[in-house]
Prior knowledge:
The protein is an all-alpha fold. It is built from two helices and no strands. It has a domain at 3-20 and 27-53. The chain has helices at 3-23, 28-53. The longest helix is centred in the middle third of the chain and has 26 residues, at 28-53. The mean pLDDT is 91.
Amino acid sequence: xxxxxxxxxxxxxxxxxxxxxxxxxxxxxxxxxxxxxxxxxxxxxxxxxxxxxxxxxxxxxxxxxxxxxxxxxx
Length: 74
């Protein structure tokens, strides 16, 4: 995960948290709508950033190194 991917992920999470604190959704469905709204804010910001940069910020990089698979019995 690149810095920009991490930033937009964090933006979506923080906006979702702030909306949730303000509105205090009481059901799963209401919480799901809040999460979609928070993610939408980050999505729009990502799209605008990509327009300005002229490239996608989404990569196939993984922040964590791949783990070796354990052998059976270990």
